[in-house]
Design goal:
single chain; Immunoglobulin-like
Length: 224
């Protein structure tokens, strides 16, 4: 009877051990399954995050390209506007850019028989001279022309250059006139011809040129 009880107790113990082992195995299976599910969820979330990052980068790149395109277009528009403004702005007669003292500007250019104390042709300004004259004064009012500038004057008869003279300005001029003389004895003067005297300052033409016509003694007699 005692041996039978011992066997029965051992059997019960083994059953308990087997039951506990089975439960432990089930617990391990459930834990592994849970870990796999959690890993899948994490992988899915990571993939979704990566996709969101890629989408964001794509949007940023598209925005940057759009901004770059916008800047290029605005630069083109600004360039076109500048060209339009320059094309619509008439040039100031007689104005040239100086290298030393800002803008060189010129006023009236004249021809006459004498000049005043400022070197400008006086009130006897003329555009017609008889063949008996001795010389013609040519002047151009100037602003901001500095001493040391090279002045030149070019004489043309009916568009053909007949004489060119040049000299260095010995003092600055601001409001007075650059002047020179056209001597009758230095050039063959044909009555009725149209002449122009063009000043230059450091190679830049002064506009407008002085225009005058040489007459004859016969015309003087007829007009007298």
């Amino acid at each position: 009877m005692k041996d039978g009880c011992v066997v029965e107790v051992k059997s019960i113990v083994w059953l308990v051990v087997l039951f506990i082992g089975a439960c432990g195995g089930l617990n391990r299976v459930d834990t592994q399954a849970t870990l796999q599910i959690e890993n899948q969820v994490l992988a899915t979330e990571a993939a979704e995050s990566a996709q969101r990052v890629i989408a964001f980068q794509t949007e940023v790149q598209a925005t940057a390209q759009a901004a770059e395109t916008f800047v290029v277009e605005m630069n083109n528009i600004n360039s076109q506007l500048v060209v339009t403004v320059r094309a619509g702005r008439p040039a100031t007669p007689g104005a040239i850019v100086a290298n030393r003292s800002g803008t060189i500007r010129f006023g009236t250019t004249m021809a006459g028989t004498s000049v005043d104390g400022r070197g400008c042709v006086d009130a006897q300004q003329r555009d017609y001279f008889l063949g008996t004259f001795s010389r013609i004064f040519i002047s151009a009012q100037a602003f901001n022309v500095q001493a040391g500038s090279r002045i030149a004057v070019e004489y043309r008869e009916e568009g053909i250059q007949m004489l060119r003279e040049s000299w260095i300005l010995d003092q600055s001029i601001n409001g007075d006139c650059i002047w020179t003389t056209f001597d009758a004895g230095r050039l063959p003067l044909t009555p009725g011809k149209r002449w122009t005297a063009q000043f230059f300052v450091d190679g830049q033409p002064v506009q407008p040129p002085v225009v005058f016509v040489i007459g004859s003694e016969r015309e003087s007699d007829e007009n007298g």
